[in-house]
């Protein structure tokens, strides 16, 4: 019997802010996330010159699974027309459990005032004793709520 180490975790969260504005926070205003989201404590560019480029690596200090953790992230793909982006998350605690962790965000307009933020976590665990990254669902739910509330106040 083959071990299943790869998997996918998906959550869809309703948002009330415009989909284009919500998507823009993660693509054009990522440097502000530390000022918007309570679970993001610090963010800085580690490698590269542009916060929003696909060749830039950022270091994030976040509260994940009730612990302050540091991890690295880079944007792999941006599809502005479909309001979709894929991020690679690595190093720190993430690398202790996962060979790969990719996070895809797709923001979908439902109507003029409502939308959906669809988050997909594609992962490969280092071994079968490691749980899927369900703890990221709580984290991303809080981030989504914080960004949505911030945009509704603006």
From TrEMBL:
Alphabetized InterPro entries for the sequence: Bet_v_I/MLP (IPR000916), MLP-like (IPR052006), START-like_dom_sf (IPR023393)
Residue spans crossing the bilayer: none
Residue intervals of the Bet v I/Major latex protein domain: 4-154
Protein family: Belongs to the MLP family.
Organism: Lotus japonicus (Lotus corniculatus var. japonicus)
GO biological process, one term: defense response
Highest taxon of the lineage: Eukaryota
Pfam families membership: Bet_v_1
Record-given protein name: Bet v I/Major latex protein domain-containing protein
